[in-house]
Amino acid sequence: MKEEDKLLRKVGTTNPFTVPEGYFENLTSEVMNRLPEKEKTEFSVKKVTLWDRVKPWAYMAAMFAGAALIIRIASSNQGTDKSVITEKETSEAVSDQYIDAALDHSMMDDYSLYVYLADESVE
Questions:
Q1: What's the pLDDT tens digit per position in 16-37?
Q2: How far apart are CA 121 and CA 118, in angstroms?
Q3: For 86-99, what is the mean pLDDT?
Q4: Is 17 inside a domain boundary?
Q5: Buried b (16+ CB within 10 A) or exposed e, 4-27
Q6: 11 close to 3: Cβ distance less than 8 angstroms
Q7: Does residue 15 lie within any of the structural domains?
Q8: Is position 83 within any domain?
Q9: How many domains does the chain have?
Q10: Domain interval for residue 54
Q11: What is the C-alpha radius of gyration for the chain, rounded to an integer number of angstroms?
């Protein structure tokens, strides 16, 4: 605060800038007089054809037809999955060697294996 008071006393509080009398009263008229006259441009009226009216609807219909086609193609490929293996192919592909190794590691006795196979064949 002391520094501000010192600066205000040193500089003063009066505004050193003045505006001539009646400056703002004539300002708008003088500015408008200095502007060049605007040339009037004539706009040509374009005739709207039937195609111009139908074009957005045609584009939208084409977009939906394309989207439906893409969805149909994408969903038809899902049904033909080549990784599906039939039961016959599975039983033929697994050899006895792998079955014996799996049974040895499963720690099942003969009776438990018999019960398991009997239950599976019933279902």
A1: 788 888 888 888 888 988 988 8
A2: 5
A3: 66
A4: no
A5: eeeeeeeeeeeeeeeeeeeeeeee
A6: no
A7: no
A8: no
A9: 2
A10: 47-77
A11: 47
